[in-house]
Amino acid sequence: MSLVPTPIGNIGDISLRAIEVLSEADVLLCEDTRVTKKLINILQERYNTTFKPNQEFISLHSHNEKSFVEKLEPSFFEQNVIYVSDAGMAGVSDPGQLLVRYAIDNEIKYDVLPGANAVLTAFIASGFIQTKMLFWGFLPHKGKDREQSLSDALGSGHTTVLYESPHRLDKLLRELDELQPNTEIFLAKELTKKYQKYMHATPKDALEILKDKIRGEWVVVLPSNDAQNSSAISQKDILELDLPLKAKAKLICKITGENTKRCYNRLLEL
Question: Residues spanned by CATH 3.30.950.10 within the chain?
Fold first, then answer.
């Protein structure tokens, strides 16, 4: 079994090795069979690639991944099986990891091909000079779970990469403007595609620049908080001090840059 990355936008980013593995597959497990079939048609036309006849396409997405894997038998992998997500690396905010776990548990030989992904592309393009990076993925859609998740991302101490859907990007920028209004963030739109766009701006400036132009796929990169990185005191250390909660909140905000009121409310819930 192999997990094969596919281009995140520019078809020219596919590797020769990926084309070879795709062409030799007996079964293609696909996040969306229509997307994979379209990719194969493009590869056939553009690169004159010959694919094995009668390839089987099976849908394997986030909604059926668990039940699909639970019904698998090791004999299924006696044929040449590969998995591809719609774009990028399988297993990165996409299905794939359960398949790898199944292969490990059942002593099935597997391979993961390297390739294009939005996480590393945006991290490097941000220019935030730090070797440690934290991939946060998608935030919860709403409520206290979202507030807590975003607060944790901002206080991670590392350059942090977020995914956000176009219809929630405006909301995210407003939340960032409330929590860390003076922080310059990095936004990348439609990576590797024709209308790719890079932007460094504070959340408020980004809102003003984009206005009603928030369309397409976006990656948001949050810089590490230098004050937190250089501090010898962690949030955990502060929480262990015998101090009033308000005082603890103020100290935590000093090292994380978090909004004091929001931090205090978060500590009340702990």
Answer: 117-224
105-159 pLDDT, tens digit per residue, is: 999 999 999 999 999 999 999 999 877 899 999 999 888 899 889 988 988 889 9
The SS3 of residue 237 is helix
pTM for the full predicted model: 0.78
Residues 164, 172 contacting (CB under 8 angstroms):
yes
185-189/197-201 β-pairing: antiparallel
Please give the angle made by the CA atoms of 197, 12 and 220, to the nearest 5 degrees.
Answer: 30
Task: Provide the β-strand partners of residue 185.
Answer: 201
Query: Per CATH, the architecture of 2-112 is what?
Result: 3-Layer(aba) Sandwich (3.40)
Cα dihedral 186, 190, 193, 197 sign? negative
- The CATH number corresponding to 117-224 among 3.30.420.240, 3.30.950.10, 3.40.50.1820, 3.30.70.141 equals 3.30.950.10
Task: List, for residues 155-188, the tens digit of each pLDDT value.
Answer: 888 999 999 988 899 999 999 998 888 889 999 9
Residues facing 182 on adjacent strands:
none
